[in-house]
């Protein structure tokens, strides 16, 4: 291979390797920096609802108050959307929900967790474990379109659903296809070749 072609190829290969290494370092830094906890309360901009009323009747709520439906109406829901937070990134997040205790709570409240591309349906008993964070599992979320919704589609007449707060805790990045990373030793080989060319040039 002509001298100048060899030098050019080595420069291109080294540039490509350093670019990939830098990208990998930035990705790692991003994941670490975004090991966040996002809490969406019923008074936050990320919360929306229909058919629910503000209440402070039962103690132990998160923030200033909570929301409850009217027990005998249909189509009531509360929805928490964490994507407005600057800490939100695509990845695997742990989801927890808090509600207040009370004798009229729904024992079969429907919860839908929307990852942005798939949904998971749960049934929770709000008669139990009030005023604490209840673990709903870990889910792989997209960058946008993520939400958690509770509704009264399963609820028995006379029971009410409670919408207080949902907490999202970052666990890890989503699994992805292997990146095109140079094989071990490639950088050393290219650096050795560059050194050899430099020696030839000086002779």
UniProtKB/TrEMBL annotation:
The chain crosses the membrane at residues 181-200. Keywords: Membrane, Signal, Transmembrane, Transmembrane helix. The keyword Transferase does not apply. The keyword Lyase does not apply. Residues 38-169 form the Golvesin/Xly CBD-like domain. InterPro entries: CBD-like_Golvesin-Xly. Residues 1-35 form the signal peptide. Pfam families: Golvesin_C. Coiled coil: none annotated. This is Golvesin/Xly CBD-like domain-containing protein.
């Amino acid at each position: 291979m002509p001298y100048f072609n060899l030098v050019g190829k080595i420069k291109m290969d080294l540039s490509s390797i350093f670019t990939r290494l830098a990208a990998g370092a930035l990705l790692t830094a991003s994941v670490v920096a975004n090991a966040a906890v996002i809490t969406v309360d019923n008074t936050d901009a990320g919360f929306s609802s229909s058919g629910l009323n503000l209440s402070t009747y039962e103690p132990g709520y998160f923030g200033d108050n909570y929301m409850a439906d009217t027990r005998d109406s249909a189509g009531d829901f509360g929805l928490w959307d964490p994507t407005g937070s600057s800490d939100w990134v695509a990845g695997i997040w742990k989801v927890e929900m808090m509600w207040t205790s009370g004798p009229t709570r729904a024992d079969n409240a429907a919860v839908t967790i929307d990852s942005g591309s798939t949904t998971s349906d749960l049934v929770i008993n709000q008669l139990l474990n009030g005023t604490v964070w209840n673990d709903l599992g870990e889910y792989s979320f997209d960058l946008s379109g993520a939400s958690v919704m509770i509704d009264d589609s399963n609820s028995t007449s006379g029971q009410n659903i409670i919408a207080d707060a949902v907490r999202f805790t970052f666990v890890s990045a989503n699994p992805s296809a292997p990146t095109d990373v140079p094989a071990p030793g490639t950088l050393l080989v290219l650096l050795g070749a560059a050194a050899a060319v430099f020696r030839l040039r000086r002779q």
